[in-house]
Amino acid sequence: MRAKITATGSYLPRKVLSNVDLEKIVDTNDEWIKQRTGIEMRHIAENESTSELAAKAAEDVLNKSALSSSNIELIIVATVTPDQPLPATALFVQNKIGAYNAFAFDINAACSGFVYALSIANAYIVSGMVKNAIVIGAETLSKITDWTDRSTCVIFGDGAGAVLLERTEEDKGILSVVLHADGRYTDLMMVPAPGSKMPCSKKAIENGDIYIKMKGNETFKMAIRSIASVSKEALDIAGMDFKDVDWMISHQANKRIIDGVARRVGLEGERSIITIDKHANTAAATIPLAMDWAVEMGKIKEGDIVLLNSFGASLTWSAAVVRW
Ligand code: COA
After folding, report:
1. Domain boundaries, the chain
2. For residues 61-72, b (16+ Cβ closer than 10 Å) or e, as one string?
3. From the CB of 32, is ligand 1 less than 6 Å away?
4. What top-level class would CATH report for the domain 2-170?
5. Which atom of ligand 1 is nearest to the CA of 256?
6. Using CA positions, which residue lies closest to atom 47 of ligand 1?
7. Does the beta carbon of 150 lie inside 6 Å of ligand 1?
8. Mutation choice for ligand 1 from 32, 36, 112, CB with most ligand atoms inside 8 A
């Protein structure tokens, strides 16, 4: 028994912020952002919450599927920008799409969140506990971004991507998943408040502790090696090699990281899906957004081998091999 991705969907907020727009906000320029990150624009959720983005991506999935919301048995939302600390964003999504027969919860593995969530849904399906699941990566990172810090505010964007996983007896779907975490590096990327360590306070707000802090350079150095090695682990388990991969969908954090991984494993050029130029880094949403884009563009087709790999705070890294 396997869990197969039978539909993909996405949603991007209407507002677009270009690099040139950012030049008016912080001391940056279009050329630096394009050269150092590959980003040309990002979408910004002005009056929408993460669950609104997530629900629209889930609705897009359902519109492309034979199932209706009442058939859905599990909803997982991967996010670092939940609507509120309590309850889970997945419950707001459940209510918005009317999937009242599902159980629903959130997970936080930062930018690896989607692959982590996919692995959980896969385990529930393969064990026979559920027949299907909607897995969503959704973020409104603009709301935890310090718009005075040019080293972070040019990188992030908002959006949501989703997939429907269904039980199948065919040799298709998720062939392998590998997850890693290393809590020795929690200082590389964080949002210090509000939380139990630093509850909401005037001081936390004034110090900017409610925003993303990132040691970009150190994170960058660790990313390429980790993504390449976890990808090999996942391919080994699936009994495959990089030459068997039709498409690689990497977490879209920096085009130089994606290209570096692609060079290292021999998947350069057309076989590496790139959406960072239009979506920027949307954390848990980048992989499902890129996946839906690639499917809609007619790139990924039935039977293709798709390698997913990601790297996130602080630190999580993961990979999955999927036969479409
Ligand atoms: N515009 C113009 N100049 C900028 C800038 C901006 N937005 N941000 C930084 N700079 C400057 C720096 O001040 C520095 O100037 P200096 O040399 O005069 O001191 C110079 O550019 C280089 O800064 P640096 O931080 O070394 O840039 P970088 O090449 O490492 O790129 C990131 C920065 C954040 C794009 C890159 O490190 C990165 O992508 N890191 C990984 C992010 C990641 O994977 N996060 C975790 C998963 S989401």
Report:
1. 2-170, 175-323
2. bbeebebebebb
3. yes
4. alpha beta
5. 39
6. 312
7. yes
8. 36
pLDDT at position 54 is 99
Q: Is 223 in the pocket of ligand 1 (CB under 6 A)?
A: yes
Per-residue confidence (pLDDT) for residue 218, from 0 to 100: 87
φ/ψ bin of 98: left (φ > 0), alpha (ψ from -120 to 50), beta (otherwise) = left
Q: Specify the ligand 1 atom closest to the Cα of 311.
A: 47
pTM of the model: 0.97
> Which runs of E-coded beta strand occur in 119-229?
132-140, 158-168, 173-181, 189-190, 213-214
Centroid of ligand 1 to alpha carbon of 142 (angstroms): 18
User: Residue 219 Cα, ligand 1 centroid: separation in angstroms?
Assistant: 11
The answer to whether 15 touches 157, Cβ cutoff 8 Å, is no
Strand-pairing partners, residue 18, are 41
pLDDT the model gives residue 299 = 97
Beta strands in 128-276 (DSSP E): 132-140, 158-168, 173-181, 189-190, 213-214, 247-250
Q: Are both 2-170 and 175-323 of the same fold?
A: yes
Assign domain 175-323 one CATH number from 2.60.120.480, 1.10.760.10, 3.40.50.360, 3.40.47.10: 3.40.47.10
Q: Which of ligand 1's atoms lies nearest the C-alpha of 217?
A: 37
Among candidate residues 158, 82, 174, 80, the one with its CA nearest the CA of residue 123: 174
* pLDDT score, position 10: 98
- Active-site amino acid positions: 111, 251, 281
What does R_g of the chain's alpha carbons equal in angstroms?
Answer: 18
Q: Is there a contact between 108 and 80 (Cβ–Cβ < 8 Å)?
A: yes
Q: State pLDDT tens for residues 271-314.
A: 999 999 999 999 999 999 999 999 999 999 999 999 999 999 88
pLDDT of 39 reads: 98
Kindly give the parts of the chain with pLDDT less than 50: none
| Residue whose CB lies within 8 A of the most ligand 1 atoms, among 27, 190, 217, for a mutation test | 217
Question: Exposed, middle or buried: residue 225 (CB in 10 Å: 0-12, 13-18, 19+)?
Answer: middle
User: Which residue, 257, 266, 268, is CA-closest to 309?
Assistant: 257
